[in-house]
Amino acid sequence: MNPPPKLDLARLPTPLQPLDRLSEALGGPRIWIKRDDLTEAAGAGNKIRKLEFVLADALNQGATALITSGGLQSNHCRATALFAAQLGLQCHLILRGSETRTANGNLLLNQVLGAKIDYVSDEAFERLDELYERKVVQLSALGERPYRIPIGASDELGLWGYIQAVKELAADFTCAQIQPSCIVTAIGSGGTYAGLLLGQALYNLSLPVIGICVSRNAGFFERKTAMDTARWQTRFQSSLNPGPGQLRDDFVGEGYGLASPEVYRLIAWLAQLEGVILDPVYTGKAFQGLIEMIQQGDIQGTDVVFLHTGGLFGLFPQMSQRSLSELLA
């Protein structure tokens, strides 16, 4: 299959590197990390792979304004604001939460980048389609051509970002001369996970994907993956079925954006051991899941790959609220 048009926004391919000191400390399989935190564009992480396809479609449709949504510290919203500025487009964000007196992290960057922000309550955010439609009407009345982007750019176009990433991974494995037993990734909106599953099938890479849920439960993401896959199959007239995957929702903790002291201790340990920095919202929880699965014998084989999806700026709001000693206690 030929992928749809895309913009060249990311610095690819990203490195695949072994974490040998960590692997030795754990005594399990050799852990490799796919550094999608290094896609550049101010730490856009995994979001950039999806946005390359989504924003190409927006430009092809003559869009002048982008509308998207997420949490107050959404990595995706910040990445969208950045690329809107690069492309000369307006950016309108619908953020779940209240305006803060002093902005930090991704919210601060959104403001610096000139994004227009609507802050909405949790209750209002449950009616997200209505909020999108209202913003479309407002912008259209002003003569703009708005383009809607779902949470995380996780739709049938965004899936192509990680369908194509599988082709890159296959080349990585050949170069490193490894056959990993699985890929582990955080799952927040579902597009990265669903794209990897389709990519396995398209590029004949028999490698189970384990998605560590950081917000909703596994049942939600099973339905979301099926829906996104069905839309992708319809739009691109394909009968391709996803490859094998597994969803784990036992590392969510207290909820989205809420990390335990164990996660913060892990972030600090890995940073000091390997010079790799995770975030408390996505990759910290997912990496905790990886380590616990290794310790419990749920992951076998000689090599395993962790997908680092970025999210560095998620650390800063947490640090502004509590001291590092409190977080690591």
The 3D shape can be described as globular
Average pLDDT over all residues:
93
CATH class of the largest domain: Alpha Beta
Query: Taking Cα atoms only, what radius of gyration do you get, to the nearest Å?
Result: 19 Å
CATH fold name of the largest domain: Rossmann fold
- CATH architectural type of the largest domain: 3-Layer(aba) Sandwich
Quick take:
With 329 residues, the chain is of the alpha/beta class. It has helices spanning 20-26, 47-60, 75-87, 105-112, 122-125, 128-141, 159-176, 191-202, 218-235, 261-274, 283-295, 315-321, 324-327, and strands at 16-18, 30-35, 65-71, 90-96, 116-120, 146-148, 183-187, 209-213, 245-248, 303-308.
Please tell me about this protein's structure.
The protein is an alpha/beta fold and 329 residues long. The protein folds into 2 domains: 16-45 and 155-327, Rossmann fold (3-Layer(aba) Sandwich), CATH 3.40.50.1100; 47-153, Rossmann fold (3-Layer(aba) Sandwich). 44% of the residues lie in helices and 16% in strands. The protein is built from 13 helices and 10 strands. The chain has helices at 20-26, 47-60, 75-87, 105-112, 122-125, 128-141, 159-176, 191-202, 218-235, 261-274, 283-295, 315-321, 324-327, and strands at 16-18, 30-35, 65-71, 90-96, 116-120, 146-148, 183-187, 209-213, 245-248, 303-308. The strands form 2 sheets. A 6-stranded mixed β-sheet has the order 1-2-10-7-8-9, with helices on both faces. The relative contact order is 0.16.
Features:
single chain, 329 residues, alpha/beta, Rossmann fold, 2 domains, six-stranded mixed sheet, four-stranded parallel sheet, 13 helices, 10 strands, 44% helix, globular
